[in-house]
C-alpha cells in the first residue's frame, strides 16, 4: 500500500512494513461519518491482502482517538439499515486483517471508537486516554462488535456495567478492567507504539497470522477444536522457510530474518 492522504484518513507506510492509519477529523474528535466508514473499510480490505504489510497502528489526529459515530454525518441518503450494514462490513474488514493491529489510543475512545480499539489486537493507551461505551447516553444500544468483544475480554457483568451506565473511565481503570494492554505517559506513546510495531514487523508473519486467527476464533471454540486448529497451523509452520530460518539463526546465535514464506 502506498502512502497517501484520503479525505478522512492519513496512511503512512514505513520501510519495514509498518502501516499507520490515522483518523483525521480532529475538529470532530475523529468522529466517523459516512465517508470515514467507507475509507476505513476500503483501507482495511487493502491492508488485508497486501503481502508487504507486517503490522498496523491505528490512531487519531489531534487529542482524540475516535469519539464514535458522527450522528450528524451518517449520510442521510442511506437508509439506516444500509448504513448499519456498511458499518458491519467495516468492522469485519478490520477483523480480517491477518497481521497484528495496535490501537494507539491518544485520547477519548467512545462508542464505536472504543469498540474499534477493542477490535484491534493490542491497545496501547496514553495516560490521558479515556474510554466509554457511550451508546446509552445517546439512546442507542452497543454496536461495532462491542457486544461480542467486551464480555469475552472483561466478563459479562463488567461489560454490562460499562454498557448500561455508559460511564467514562480513565486509561488506568481500563487497564484494571483488562481492556488496555499498557498505559504510558502521553509523551512516550508514539515511541512505545513504534517499538511494539517494529518488534511485530520483525516477527514471523505466517506464524503470527495463524496465532492471531486461532486466538480470535478459539475464544468461542471448544478445547478439542482449538487443539485441532493448533495442530494444523503448526504443521504449516514446520514447512515454512521462516521456521528453517529461525532454527538456523538460533544455531548461529543471530537474530532471524523472517520473510513470510
How does this model look, in words?
This protein has 261 residues and is of the alpha/beta class. The protein folds into two domains: 198 residues, 2-enoyl-CoA Hydratase, Chain A, domain 1 (Alpha-Beta Complex), CATH 3.90.226.10; 48 residues. Helix content is 46%, strand content 16%. It is built from ten helices and eleven strands. It has a seven-stranded mixed sheet, with helices on both faces. Strands 5-7-9-10 form a four-stranded mixed sheet. Helix 1 packs parallel to helix 2 and helix 4 crosses helix 5. The two termini are 19 Å apart.
Strand order of the biggest β-sheet = 1-2-3-4-6-8-11
Element order: H for helix, E for strand: EEEHEEHEEHEEHHEHEHHHH
The end-to-end distance, rounded to whole angstroms, is: 19 Å
Mean pLDDT: 91
Shape: globular
And the CATH topology of the largest domain? 2-enoyl-CoA Hydratase, Chain A, domain 1
CATH H level, superfamily name of the largest domain: 2-enoyl-CoA Hydratase, Chain A, domain 1
Strand count, sense and barrel status of the largest sheet are: 7 strands, mixed
Based on CA atoms alone, the radius of gyration comes out at: 19 Å
| The first-level CATH class name of the largest domain | Alpha Beta
Amino acid at each position: 500500500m502506498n502512502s497517501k492522504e484520503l479525505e478522512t484518513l492519513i496512511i503512512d507506510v514505513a520501510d519495514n512494513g509498518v502501516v499507520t492509519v490515522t483518523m483525521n477529523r480532529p475538529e470532530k474528535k475523529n468522529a466517523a461519518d459516512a465517508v470515514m466508514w467507507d475509507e476505513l473499510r476500503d483501507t482495511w480490505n487493502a491492508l488485508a491482502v497486501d503481502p508487504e504489510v507486517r503490522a498496523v497502528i491505528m490512531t487519531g489526529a489531534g487529542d482524540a482517538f475516535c469519539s464514535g459515530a458522527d450522528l450528524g454525518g451518517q449520510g442521510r441518503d442511506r437508509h439506516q439499515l444500509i448504513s448499519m450494514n456498511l458499518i458491519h462490513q467495516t468492522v469485519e474488514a478490520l477483523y480480517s486483517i491477518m497481521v497484528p493491529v495496535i490501537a494507539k489510543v491518544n485520547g477519548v475512545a467512545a462508542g464505536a471508537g472504543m469498540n474499534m480499539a477493542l477490535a484491534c489486537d493490542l491497545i496501547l493507551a496514553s495516560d490521558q486516554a479515556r474510554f466509554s461505551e457511550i451508546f446509552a447516553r445517546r439512546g442507542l444500544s452497543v454496536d461495532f462488535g462491542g457486544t461480542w468483544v467486551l464480555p469475552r475480554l472483561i466478563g459479562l457483568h463488567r461489560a454490562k456495567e460499562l454498557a448500561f451506565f455508559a460511564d467514562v473511565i480513565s486509561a488506568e481503570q481500563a487497564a484494571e478492567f483488562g481492556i488496555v494492554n499498557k498505559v504510558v505517559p502521553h509523551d512516550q506513546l508514539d515511541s512505545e507504539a513504534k517499538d511494539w510495531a517494529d518488534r511485530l514487523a520483525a516477527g514471523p508473519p505466517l506464524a503470527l497470522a495463524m496465532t492471531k486467527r486461532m486466538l480470535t476464533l478459539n475464544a468461542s471454540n471448544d478445547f478439542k477444536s482449538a487443539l485441532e486448529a493448533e495442530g494444523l497451523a503448526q504443521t504449516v509452520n514446520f514447512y515454512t522457510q521462516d521456521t528453517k530460518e529461525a532454527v538456523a539463526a538460533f544455531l548461529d546465535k543471530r537474530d532471524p530474518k523472517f520473510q513470510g514464506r
